[in-house]
């Protein structure tokens, strides 16, 4: 007798259907697993055997061969436990199941008492079942929220494929043999949602120019580098910026859902709701942690549709920063290894912060900088010109005019309601630019290409040439000019102007890397 169940393995982000075949054969009694499997997967057959024996299944003193096909594909993961257990159960059972197991995709980890535990990559596995035209997919109940979020996003997921969620192995067997449907549980995610709430600007005092900066970055999705003395509020500002960002669009939300599903067992509540992700890797991160591997996404891909924040930018490894060039430009991470090659989405809003010198007090009015000139030049040279050229806005955060303790000395002095006002401004500007974005096929001004910029500027040919004359004495690169025009387009949207004006271009130019460096007196970059 031979039994067959189905699951899937992952080649990077792409799922491949796996047949789990079981049969008895001659030889010494025991379970033998074949098919290019990992240690984690081989342990799964013991978990499956123990869970079945607790339910009363007797496998007997036989040699049982479990084959995972195709044999040449490397199989890894804990989600093979359930299909192996069901294939063994069908082999040991005397009556045929009511549902054909081969028509469904099964994926879940098993505890020794038969509980179904959540797995990673539930969303890609569900898409594999849809693509293959299977009748359904069986998962642990804990994976239900991400599958339900996937179903809400795209009509492609609204197919005849049935999504079944169970708590215990005995419940799966009761459905398979007796057609007992799983009970739907209405889980309360309120506590998880409260824990996931992000900080906002209601506890931060913002000068008028920084309010304009926050709205411009949120509307235009521009990359940003903040410089300033220690305690000026650089990190505080950037960590609060996601609180006013618009939600992800459907495509970004779906890709973020897939990526996080492959990264961890539980997709965070903000991602399920379509809020932009925020990733904040430490400067000691390895290239694999930031860029990802052929089997797992890194922080750059996990920030897709949201924000990647690198604090203390000069402290990151030089090769790591240089590796960001192509992903920041193309929105993709291409991983190429000898055995595997894959591509991860990485269209992020790049935000960074750093000091002006090693001691941090260069240009400060409160403390004197004691860094020698050679240390200053070496510090500024840690970030290459091509990386700086890929950042839209360079801004020096001003020092507080009064000590911070005075700002919070009186009760209720925090600017309550500031976040709500910023969100209203972001929504108003986004609505103003929505028709133009739809016509150009872009998400935000940061994505406007060079050939689209003349039309996006809403200027006549003569007016556009006059704007370009502003850049002649600055000797900026073509990339820097394009990025300045994108920022100017956002500043025009903030003013409610259909066309880019001279003041918008001059303001955008003042936020460029070369101009900001000249203001600080830097000569090393």
Characterize the structure shown:
The chain is of the alpha/beta class and 525 residues long. Helices cover 40% and strands 16% of the residues. The strands form five sheets. Strands 11-12-15-10-16 form a five-stranded parallel sheet. α1 links the parallel β3 and β4 (63-69). The longest helix has 23 residues, at 418-440. The termini are far apart.
- Number of helices in the DSSP assignment: 23
Structural class: alpha/beta
Shape: elongated
Q: Which sequence of strands runs across the widest sheet?
A: 11-12-15-10-16
Short summary:
This protein is an alpha/beta fold.
List keywords for this structure.
5-stranded parallel sheet, 16 strands, 525 residues, alpha/beta, 4-stranded mixed sheet, 40% helix
Topology:
Elements: E1 2-11, E2 14-25, E3 30-34, H1 39-54, E4 63-69, H2 81-92, E5 104-106, E6 109-110, E7 116-117, H3 122-132, E8 136-140, H4 144-153, E9 162-166, H5 169-178, H6 190-195, H7 208-220, E10 224-227, H8 234-240, H9 250-263, H10 269-272, E11 278-279, H11 287-291, H12 299-302, E12 307-311, H13 318-322, H14 325-330, E13 332-336, E14 341-345, E15 349-354, H15 373-380, H16 385-389, E16 393-396, H17 404-407, H18 418-440, H19 453-457, H20 461-469, H21 478-494, H22 502-510, H23 513-520
Parallel strand pairs: 3-4, 5-8, 8-9, 10-15, 10-16, 11-12, 12-15
Antiparallel strand pairs: 1-2, 2-4, 6-7, 13-14
Helix pairs in contact: 1-2, 4-9, 7-18, 7-21, 21-22
